[in-house]
Design brief:
Blueprint: E1 5-7, E2 10-13, E3 18-23, E4 33-39, E5 46-52, E6 57-60, E7 68-73, E8 78-83, E9 92-98, H1 114-117, E10 120-121, E11 125-130
Parallel strand pairs: 2-11
Antiparallel strand pairs: 1-3, 3-8, 4-5, 4-9, 5-6, 7-8, 9-10, 9-11
Length: 131
């Protein structure tokens, strides 16, 4: 499986900020969506934010709206997740993922079957927030 490259995780105090970066693969065909997902201890993987790279349209989980911002730098093939006002519930392993190949759902908004939509994944980066 082709993997994306993530960085920027770390430990931060509650109320602080982190910026995650994801360098996307240049050879994945027909990428429309890049997103950030996370999995906390004992929890299922959940969507955080996604971006439709053709238009810049974004989607956010309710839990992060107003605090997190997903953005892209086309020249660097990089997608960012700016995380502000972090709290302990944000502690998780964060994954960057993209769609690709021949799959196109018509939207970058994820559903419950995340891995059917987002099929290319990074290795994950740990974010720990101390309350």
């Amino acid at each position: 499986q082709v993997q994306l490259v993530e960085s920027g995780g770390g430990s931060v105090q509650a109320g602080g900020s982190l910026r995650l970066s994801c360098v996307t693969s240049r050879y994945i065909f027909s990428v429309n969506c890049v997103g950030w997902f996370r999995q906390g201890p004992g929890k299922e993987r959940e969507g955080v934010a996604t971006i439709y790279i053709r238009t810049g349209s974004t989607y956010y989980a309710d839990s992060v709206k107003g605090r997190f911002t997903i953005s892209q730098d086309n020249a660097k093939n990089t997608v960012y997740l700016q995380m502000n006002s972090l709290n302990a519930e944000d502690t998780a392993t964060y994954y960057c993922a993209s769609d690709g190949g021949h799959y196109w759902s018509g939207s970058c908004l994820w559903g419950p079957r995340i891995r059917d939509h987002y099929t290319y994944w990074g290795q994950g980066t740990q974010v720990t927030v101390s309350s």
